[in-house]
Design goal:
By secondary structure, this protein is mainly α. It has ten helices and no strands. It has helices at about 10-20, 30-35, 40-45, 50-75, 80-95, 95-100, 110-115, 115-135, 140-160, 170-190. Helix 1 (about 10-20) packs across helix 4 (about 50-75) and helix 5 (about 80-95) packs parallel to helix 9 (about 140-160). About 30% of the residues are buried.
Length: about 200
């Protein structure tokens, strides 16, 4: 690719693609430079370090993932929204493994603050997640507890599925559907604690 065509956005997108191919932990400035056919030094005009590169990939992936989830749950409520949310989450995790791994890193707050689209990602994530769970009548502190349950269930299932960790002959898809049925029943029958003041909810 032409050196003159390099931009920070193109560099970060290429790094995200590379993460899906070789693993998020394996992306480096040198590997990215080879992909563009330029010297390593050329990359530093767009990212200051491999740490910043990985943080930018994490922020890109988080935005992509929540946009996919938001589109899936639009106009849905209750179990329909839960299933749409979960299926979109799982699809992204399995289709984009490097990007998905990136979403579990904690970026530098200063980097987030300098880009409005990253703040928007956090706001959309909270809005989509909160909206889905409020349909089950949940408020804080139960919202946070429910988010943690969903996040651990989705992440654990997708991680094990990706590495072939389910060895029993029962279809993985069937177990996934039953797991979502169980989560729906759990949310409908949540053991409510004393109501508090609703607040922002982190992404599952």
């Amino acid at each position: 690719m032409a050196r003159a065509g390099l931009t920070t956005e193109r560099v970060v997108l290429a790094a995200a693609d590379l993460a899906d191919e070789i693993g998020f932990e394996n992306i480096t400035v040198a590997a990215l430079a080879r992909r563009f056919g330029v010297k390593d030094a050329s990359m530093y005009a767009h990212v200051r370090s491999v740490r910043e590169l990985r943080e930018r990939v994490a922020l890109l992936a988080s935005g992509e993932m929540i946009d996919r989830i938001a589109t899936a749950v639009a106009g849905r409520a209750g179990k329909d929204a839960l299933v749409a949310f979960a299926d979109a989450y799982r699809a992204y995790a399995l289709e984009r493994p490097g990007r998905y791994r990136a979403t579990h890193t904690q970026p530098d707050p200063a980097l987030v603050a300098e880009r409005p689209e990253y703040r928007r990602t956090a706001e959309v994530t909270a809005e989509v997640t909160t909206g889905m769970l409020r349909a089950y009548g949940l408020t804080e502190p139960d919202l946070t507890d429910a988010v943690r349950l969903l996040r651990s269930t989705f992440h654990g299932y997708c991680t094990l599925e990706a590495i072939g960790g389910f060895g029993a002959p029962r279809p993985v898809e069937t177990s996934w559907r039953h797991a979502l049925d169980a989560l729906h029943v759990t949310l409908e029958n949540w053991p409510h604690t004393e109501a508090g003041t609703p607040g922002p909810v982190p992404a599952p």
